[in-house]
Amino acid sequence: MKPESGEILEAFEEYLRIVKGLGEKSVAAYLADLRQLQEQTGDLLSLETEKILHYLSGFDNKRTLNRKLASVNAFVNFCHARRLTTRSVRIPMARIPRALPKYLSYEEIEAGLARIDRSTPAGRRDYALILFLYASGCRISEALAARREDLVEGWLRIRYAKGAKERMVPLAPAALEALEEYLAQSDIASSHLWLNYRGEPLSRVSAYKIVRKYLGVSPHVLRHSFASALILGGADLRVVQELLGHSSLITTQIYTHIERKHLKETVTQYHPLGQ
User: Fold this and answer.
1) C-alpha to C-alpha distances, 226 to 56, 65, 229, 252, 272, nearest whole angstrom
2) CATH number of 5-81
3) Residues 45-72: pLDDT tens digits?
4) Boundaries of every domain in the chain
5) How far is residue 48's CA from residue 31's CA, in Å, rounded to a whole number?
6) Residue 77 burial (10 A CB sphere; 0-12, 13-18, 19+)
7) pLDDT (tens digit, 9 = 90+) per residue, 72-104?
């Protein structure tokens, strides 16, 4: 006896929750996509490539298109694996150009730092935090989790990295000097590096506001700025990968596009045929 579409969707929902371990929002998105497909094509168990393509043609945004397609492919594979359909239809994802990460030049960062009033405790903290992020390339979560004991002879031990991987990153003298100036003013007994005016660990929201106030960007842009400065300076890609804590070199390779862009702009600006 052929199962009803509703029964199949219930089984698929259970599969997504238990086998795939997806969260509530992801499961809801998958089911919403499939119900939308069902409204347009009728029976979900008799899907043909032509019907699927007709459904997908209604989405111009490639990211939306790929999300819908991921739902369809997952459902079709689910049905095929359980012999509910005789063949598996798989449509490749749309290619989306990877955007270059936003980054700031050292001159832009310097201009922002110059606006900080370092005569106040908060100003010395803000100055040190921005230099710390730019000099280390660490994620804001890693920076806020850092403790005083993680500073070892000019190096920062990042023990709270994504994926629970520990790494060591050298800090530039200017960042260390600013950090020492900031820490020297504090008489609060706390092992955390970054504190608010009450002596409590600085929150992500507060850190975001600090960087936004002086540089007009999020803290993560300083991580991109760190990596971009190294790549443009000629650093080896694998060294940058290690400093950023990327598990795969593929993730780091996006910064090579910045290098190519820089080289192209240099030729355009300085070569007589580049005009």
Assistant:
1) 40, 34, 5, 12, 32
2) 1.10.150
3) 777 777 777 787 777 777 788 888 888 8
4) 5-81, 106-269
5) 19
6) middle
7) 888 888 888 887 776 666 666 656 555 667 889
Q: Which CATH architecture has domain 106-269?
A: Orthogonal Bundle (1.10)
**Inter-CA distances, 83 with 71, 72, 86, 89, Å:** 19, 17, 7, 13
Active site residues: 139, 162, 220, 223, 246, 255
pTM of the model: 0.61
N-to-C CA span, the chain: 72
